[in-house]
Backbone:
């Protein structure tokens, strides 16, 4: 599929509590899968209470699929504000996720993998990948 150069990129925001695992991986997969699908996206992630760092387990897990998550940093929602998003995806932050202006809001009930061992963490990583791919195909 060839992307329309006249259409602005779709703005996607992935939000979890710490912005150190799920939302970081979702941001990365949005970039990876959008490129594969020929879609123009601006993918961002943030946390309602950011930890200040990306979990080393998330970095290691994403390295297994060829993505360098070490270049990312944990961000607060106020750092990514600015205009309306096409889609905001929340992941497990419930009431801790403040309102962000979006055309579409989605909530994914994905467990926080931060305390999981690598094989289980990879299972969450793969679930995030599948959910992001489904989302991109729905745009």
Residues:
């Amino acid at each position: 599929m060839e992307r329309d150069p006249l259409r602005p990129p779709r703005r996607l925001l992935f939000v979890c509590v710490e912005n150190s695992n799920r939302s970081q991986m979702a941001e990365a997969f949005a970039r990876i899968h959008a490129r594969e699908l020929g879609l123009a996206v601006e993918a961002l992630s943030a946390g309602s209470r950011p930890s200040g760092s990306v979990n080393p387990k998330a970095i290691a897990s994403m390295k297994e699929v060829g993505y360098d998550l070490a270049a990312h940093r944990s961000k607060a929602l106020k750092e990514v504000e600015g205009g309306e998003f096409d889609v905001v995806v929340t992941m497990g932050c419930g009431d801790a996720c403040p309102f962000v202006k979006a055309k579409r809001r989605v909530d994914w009930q994905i467990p926080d993998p931060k305390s999981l061992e690598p094989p289980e963490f990879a299972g969450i990583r793969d679930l995030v990948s599948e959910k992001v791919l489904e989302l991109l195909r729905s745009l």
About this structure: The first helix runs from residue 22 to 37. Strands lie at 10-16, 41-47, 85-90, 102-107. Helices lie at 22-37, 56-63, 118-138.
